[in-house]
UniProtKB/TrEMBL annotation:
GO MF, one annotated term: metal ion binding
Source lineage: Eukaryota, Fungi, Fungi incertae sedis, Mucoromycota, Mucoromycotina
Its EC number(s): 2.3.3.14
Gene: ABSGL_02038.1 scaffold 2596
Protein name: homocitrate synthase
InterPro entries per the UniProt record, alphabetical: 2-IPM_HCS-like, AIPM/Hcit_synth_CS, Aldolase_TIM, DRE_TIM_HCS_fun_bact, Homocitrate_synth, LeuA/HCS_post-cat, PYR_CT
Recorded GO CC terms: mitochondrion
Keyword entries, A-Z: Amino-acid biosynthesis, Lysine biosynthesis, Magnesium, Manganese, Metal-binding, Transferase
HAMAP family: Homocitr_synth_fung_arch (MF_02222)
Pfam families per the UniProt record, alphabetical: HCS_D2, HMGL-like
Region (Disordered): 1-28
Organism of this sequence: Absidia glauca
Amino acid sequence: MSNTGNGLKSNDSSRPREPIASPYMPKYPDPMSNISNFKIIESTLREGEQFANAFFDTAKKVEIAKALDAIGVDYLELTSPAASEQSLNDCRVISSLGLKAKILTHVRCHMDDAKLAIESGVDGLDVVIGTSSFLREFSHGKDMDYITQKAIEVITYIKSKGLEVRFSTEDSFRSDLVDLLSIYKAVDKIGVTRVGIADTVGCANPRQVYELVRTLRSVVSCDIECHFHNDTGCAIANAYTALEAGATHIDTSVLGIGERNGITPLGGLLARMYTADKEFVMNKYDLTKIRDVENIVADSVEVTVPFNNYITGYCAFTHKAGIHAKAILNNPSTYEILNPHDFGMNRYVSIGHRLTGWNAVKNRVEQLNLGLTDEDAKHVTQKIKELADVRPLSLDDVDTLLRAYHQAKDQGLHGEVLNKIATPDMIATINAAHEK
């Protein structure tokens, strides 16, 4: 047995050991949890249309629908056909594509909306009505008795037509709990497919979500869908917590686009759930296609994919600090909880900066097949740090330095070639010399 220097022994066979398991999974799984058994309702073509820059014509909607279907999302939610004549036509077109995903549309709790939606050919209706005091007073002006009566009427009609139906309250977290549970129990009793909770203004936190979903789970037998806005940055955390508490379906949109700051982003949710149960997520969804649909949507709504976007941002798998780079090169799991290759991405070790380490430079030497020693890598690393104190170097700059050093070493002049380069701009003179 060896002592590690901090009072711990590195090979103490007498100490009881826990089974090797993911530290991100609960030690004793909650029997109500659905983190390994959930469905995604992808709402880019409904909630996403409410994004400030969004305008999707029919061809673009079809392109997005097919791209989302290729990922394997369970449902596609479309704008209500009551919104406009084109919205009605879009429902008909996408419903006729023969996609694997079920097609839903989102409608007000109103019989006319329900009848029009049913005629559009969708597989199910997502019915919604506001229940908070704010919305009852300043939006539709109806009391809870009216809301309950209307919900039962509309749901019964939709069910009679053989379609799925979800009933959701709007602004759920600012609604009275007794009102919520009362109406959810009423619609569950008549056989609604799902009930929905909506954090319409993004005010909820994970603890509130867990308590509400767990309470609702104890009074209804149907599925539970959750819709979280991201105004205060909790959408992904709230979605994950909802699944822990017993929710079954989560609403998402590509890049999180939607009203105001949008809702739970599809890529972000899949990253979170991959960490929780990699096997389930990878067997169900094609994670390599996330980048494709994000590029389609970003281009359509005239935004760029954020630099720190989950999975696909250009910094998502970039490593810079020397100690990080060394560990990553030895074992990527040291500083990556997501494997970029599972998402069709690649990691990048940035080396043209003052924080670089010689292990990262040595790795680049090996990639270029230059055959330099560890000492050589250390010498070039010192020069990179010196030059990068003036400005960062591009990968081409670093490669030029390495090749020039390698060529000079064959002539015994490798020390001199580094000494001659006093500024980053002088690297260009090496390129010019090579071109001659």
